[in-house]
């Protein structure tokens, strides 16, 4: 993720943004997916304090169920072996790894996954650094930092798309071999795909409960499992982490929560025919930025233009003053995006109509909250953290 590189960039921005007409005391970070995870890490890192003042966290958070290690030597050794580097001596191994071209890393990536094309989706994780006298990016588990209020109290926009990781689900369901393997070995495969520790003594029970909650008594090989699989992947990889981030951050700062449900003519996923399937990961980005590989720039003649116009206006208002509402803007006058509160649990549903609703996916997230409570033990091979 290059987290310390990101810090260097933010320090440069703070020093030089005024030369470009910017305000060093009004910097907004926007991140998507891994970028969103990065922002939720910067919010707790001592290295990033006072370097930004507002955050737009789209479809990602570090506060989900997946454990953070203090080192990833085993993963590094696997990577080294795939690149034909020695693994006998760490100094020689590092020297060899540093000599490799980035395309060599890219070409070995499919062999780093444990199940199918890209499971686990989050392979290399940020680490909680032991103190060797260096400047440390992470000094403790981020969830503990958020629980203890040790994070940057800045205005936040955060949320997700309606169908997030449908692509992951479809890649399993379209492959009979993978689907059969998952169906008959769910308790072993689920921790890999849905990002929790297989080494935990609770792992088997968690797998059973997730299977019952999402699929009931139906076999995964049954033709009707697409939507439950989409929901399970989406909640595991994005939804629950964002949900928990909202609840942890909203105790101390304003959080504007959203679900993007607008389905236009273009998408990153077309299934089962040439029509878009749902509203998946990255689909909302095409309404904020031009993505040439997916869509040309929308014009006023396109039906999508009204969403482009309103979304960019809300996000620009937020970047300017930390509030996406702007009553002086005729296009936003009818939209009232209330900050999340524990009493009403508001979120803005951004679809054909932009509507304030309450209680996003609560039934599904209650399952995850029960399986991974905030006093749980985030367990990995190298670390055990017990939250009070």
TrEMBL record:
Gene3D superfamilies: alpha/beta hydrolase
Domain Carboxylesterase type B: 1-368
UniProt key word Hydrolase: no
Keyword Glycoprotein: yes
Keywords carried by this UniProt record: Glycoprotein
Protein name, as recorded: (Mediterranean fruit fly) hypothetical protein
């Amino acid at each position: 993720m290059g987290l310390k590189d990101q810090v260097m960039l933010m320090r440069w921005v703070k020093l030089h943004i005024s030369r470009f007409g910017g305000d060093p005391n009004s910097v907004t970070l926007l991140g998507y997916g891994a970028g969103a995870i990065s922002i939720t890490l910067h919010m707790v890192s001592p290295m990033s304090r006072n370097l930004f003042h507002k955050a737009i966290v789209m479809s990602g958070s570090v506060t989900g169920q997946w454990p953070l290690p203090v080192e990833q030597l085993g993963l590094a050794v696997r990577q080294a072996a795939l690149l034909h580097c020695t693994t006998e001596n760490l100094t020689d191994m590092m020297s060899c790894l540093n000599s490799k071209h980035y395309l060599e890393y890219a070409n070995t990536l499919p062999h780093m996954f444990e199940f199918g094309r890209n499971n686990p989706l989050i392979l290399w994780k940020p680490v909680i650094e032991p103190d060797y006298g260096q400047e440390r990016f992470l000094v403790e588990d981020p969830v503990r930092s958020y629980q203890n209020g040790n994070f940057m109290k800045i205005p936040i926009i955060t949320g997700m798309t309606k169908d997030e990781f449908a692509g992951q689900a479809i890649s399993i369901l379209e492959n009979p071999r993978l689907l059969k393997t998952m169906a008959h070995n769910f308790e072993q495969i689920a921790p890999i795909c849905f990002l929790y520790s297989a080494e935990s003594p609770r792992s088997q029970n968690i797998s059973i409960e997730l299977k019952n909650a999402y699929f009931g008594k139906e076999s995964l090989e049954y033709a009707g499992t697409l939507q439950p699989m989409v929901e399970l992947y989406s909640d595991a990889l994005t939804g629950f982490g964002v949900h928990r981030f909202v609840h942890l951050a909203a105790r101390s700062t304003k959080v504007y929560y959203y679900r993007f449900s607008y389905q236009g003519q273009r998408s990153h996923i077309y299934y089962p025919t040439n029509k878009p399937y749902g509203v998946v990961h990255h689909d909302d980005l095409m309404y904020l930025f031009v993505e040439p590989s997916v869509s040309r720039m929308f014009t006023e003649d396109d039906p999508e233009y009204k969403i482009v116009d309103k979304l960019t206006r809300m996000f620009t208002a937020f970047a300017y003053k930390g509030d996406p509402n702007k009553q002086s803007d005729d296009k936003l006058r009818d939209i009232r995006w209330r900050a999340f509160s524990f009493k009403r649990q508001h979120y803005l549903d951004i679809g054909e109509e932009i509507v304030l609703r309450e209680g996003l996916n609560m039934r599904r997230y209650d399952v995850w909250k029960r399986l991974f409570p905030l006093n749980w033990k985030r367990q990995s091979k190298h670390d055990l953290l017990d939250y009070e």
